[in-house]
Amino acid sequence: MQLDLNLLTALDALLEEGSVAGAAARLHVTAPAMSRSLGRIRKATGDQILVRTGRSMVPTTRALAMRAQVHALVQQAHQLLSAQQELDLAALDRVFTVRWHDALTAACGTALITAVHRQAPGVRLRLSAEPGTDDAELRRGEVDLESSAGAPTLPDIRHRLVGSDRLVVAVRPGHPLTEGPPSIERYAAAEHLTVSRRGSLRDPIDDALATCGLERRVIAAGPTTAFALQLALDTDLVVTLPDAVTRAAREHLGLATLPPPLPLPEVPLYLLWHQRYDDDRAHTWLRDLATETVQALFAPPTTPQQPLTNRTGQ
């Protein structure tokens, strides 16, 4: 069955105006053309739709029953085929999937959820664990926004640099490294822990030490930042990780924070999304709000803090 969707627009006008002449004037067509459309509508529906009563026409029982639905369908079609309207956050009803590194989620996930709910109460967030470096979920539309320490290589994956984080050393209070300035030799001689979802026992810190002719001993790899910090608290293991995104967790646990005894590059932080969302106003709002939330982590502190030396958080 072939459907002429123009008949929906004609039917909507006929039901709203209650006359062929009124509907024709509303749609800027001739009365004979509208009369022909009414004939086709009657044939398609098997109903008279409008029947004459004296000098006027009245809708049939079926026409009255379908009037609201027809009007809603026409309005939806106009919205689908017209230019995007202004974003109404109060009326926005949507689910976004945000896949961030666990440390980033712990650091500002609450702030993002709070901000989203305050501005758009109908929006729901699905915070997803970061499984790896596979961009397939972004390309399939299963993930709306992702965090990454590196810019993507695929041309259809967009990215935005939202900040960069310095690396710090976290150890338990009273750890031998807290006794005096930690030298690079003492740092390398300590037992270390890496944070790696894939269990890697090596990271760029090993490359930096190698340029100084040193090698450290990594005895464990933790899957999440939270696990690594707890292990550092309970043992003599040393963990080196980004400062801003782990600051609250380190202070909550009472870990000592030390500056690394060798120059280490800062860790960039990118937000990634698929190009299909470039002109999506709701997605633009989400990534702008996420950018503001994440960048607040890197803002200068509003109150003086202790220098980054032998700080235990106690």
How are the SSEs ordered, and which strands pair?
Layout (H helix, E strand, L loop, with lengths): L5 H12 L2 H8 L3 H15 L4 E4 L2 E4 L1 H21 L12 E6 L2 H18 L3 E6 L7 H5 L4 E4 L8 E9 L1 E5 L12 H6 L1 E5 L8 H8 L5 E6 L2 H10 L3 E5 L4 H7 L2 E3 L8 E8 L6 H15 L19
Parallel strand pairs: 3-4, 3-5, 8-9, 8-10
Antiparallel strand pairs: 1-2, 5-12, 6-12, 7-10, 7-11
Write up this protein.
By secondary structure, the protein is of the alpha/beta class. It has a 5-stranded mixed sheet, covered by helices on one side. Strands 9-8-10-7-11 form a 5-stranded mixed sheet, with helices on one face. The chain has helices at 6-17, 20-27, 31-45, 61-81, 102-119, 136-140, 184-189, 204-211, 225-234, 247-253, 281-295; strands at 50-53, 56-59, 94-99, 123-128, 145-148, 157-165, 167-171, 191-195, 217-222, 238-242, 256-258, 267-274. The termini are far apart. Residues 309-314 have low confidence and may be disordered.
The secondary structure category is: alpha/beta
Extended strand count: 12
Gyration radius, in Å: 31 Å
Strand content: 15-25%
Biggest pleated sheet: 5 strands, mixed
Q: Secondary-structure element sequence?
A: HHHEEHEHEHEEEHEHEHEHEEH
Total DSSP helices = 11
**Per the principal axes of the C-alpha atoms, what is the gross shape?**
rod-shaped
How do the strands line up in the largest sheet?
4-3-5-12-6
Mean pLDDT: 88
Q: Termini, distance in Å?
A: 76 Å
Question: Which range best describes the helical content: under 10%, 10-25%, 25-40%, 40-55%, 55-70% or over 70%?
Answer: 25-40%
* Poorly predicted regions: 309-314
